[in-house]
Amino acid sequence: MTNKVRNIAVFTSGGDAPGMNACIRAVVRAGIYHQFNVYGVIDGFNGLIDDDFKPMQYTSVSNIISKGGTVLGTERSPRFREKKYREIAYQNIKEREIDTIVVVGGDGSYKGVKVFSEEYGINFIGIPGTIDNDIYGSNYSIGFDTALNNIIEAIDKIRDTASSHHRIFLVEVMGNRSGVLALNSAIATGAEDVFIPERNEDLNIFEEKIKKAYEFKKSSIIIVSEGDQIGGAKELYHYLAKKGMESKVRVAILGHIQRGGSPTYKDRMMATQFGAKAIDMILENEVNKLIGTKDGKIYSYEFTETVTKQLPSNYDALKLIKKLSRY
Ligand code: F6P
Fold it and tell me: From ligand 1's centre to the CA of 58, what distance in Å?
């Protein structure tokens, strides 16, 4: 039997996350090392539909390890939810004889690729890439550490103003429907309290606490996850304003500053290891699986219908935050 060269493709999907480039680099270089033809697909699922495939060479991924974002581009693709566009994508893949696609993204991306794989028999491997770190089955996803460091840097600056002006800052962070980013940033910034989507806070109790804390401390940082049950930092501000605290409270919505920037050591390492693992899995024909990590080990696991974590794995973090804030 002749050794036929295998064609594979890699793309990034969903929100960009720092470290995605390090992951693309690892997939491309490890793939080339094992004599695969590697295509980079531009702008996620849209590139599959629009026939935007870039043959990747060794040097295509030079000097990208230190860059945030993704050199392949990324999109959330409503078109890919429609069968007629998935059919077009399949024809483009078939034309190039690509048998496996590696997707770096979050739960929405995984779901898209799973449906596609079932319909057309194209293999996939999912690599966790989202600052939200909310993927069921993996303790880590690419971008989380850099995003946390971005948040820390911003909040340290806000703290200067909070303490100088004796203010309470409600700082809104991302995370979609997960409070993992909020919980971890609350611990690392010494926040007084945190509002997360997974928990319904009693606002009367919060109001009492914050007033008491203000009396002896004169400033506070409260982290509010964008998906929290109150409706974000602005809603919480309106509540406190109605209770007469308007002059003392300010809102800072960190927004997309959290997602950008050069990846940290941890994100470069994890991304590189995840990328190389994907190629190992293809070589072993261990496909249609996701890559995860726990306790320093990188492994593969089966896709389940639920790929979003139901509760943050470090829920104890909440108890710690409450314990360390005096009121
Ligand atoms: O999934 C990453 C994330 O940054 C979420 O935390 C946030 O809810 C969402 O993406 C924002 O998406 P967009 O950049 O499309 O506004």
Answer: 31
Probe ligand 1: pick from 259, 307, 308, 309, max atoms within 8 Å of CB? Answer: 259
Lookup result for tokens 């531009």? 42
The identity of residue 281, as a single letter, is M
Distance 232 CA to ligand 1 centre (A): 14
Instruction: Summarize pLDDT for 206-242 with one digit per residue, the tens.
Output: 999 899 888 888 999 999 999 999 999 999 999 999 9
User: Exposed e or buried b for every residue in 287-321, given b needs 16+ CB within 10 A?
Assistant: bbbbbbbeeeebebeebeeebbbeebeeeebbeeb
- The model carries a pTM of 0.95
Q: How far is the CA of 222 from the centre of ligand 1 (A)?
A: 21
Q: Are 159 and 49 in contact (CB under 8 A)?
A: no
Residue with structure tokens 């909020």? 182
Residues annotated catalytic, as ranges: 132
Both tokens assigned to 202: 């009693």
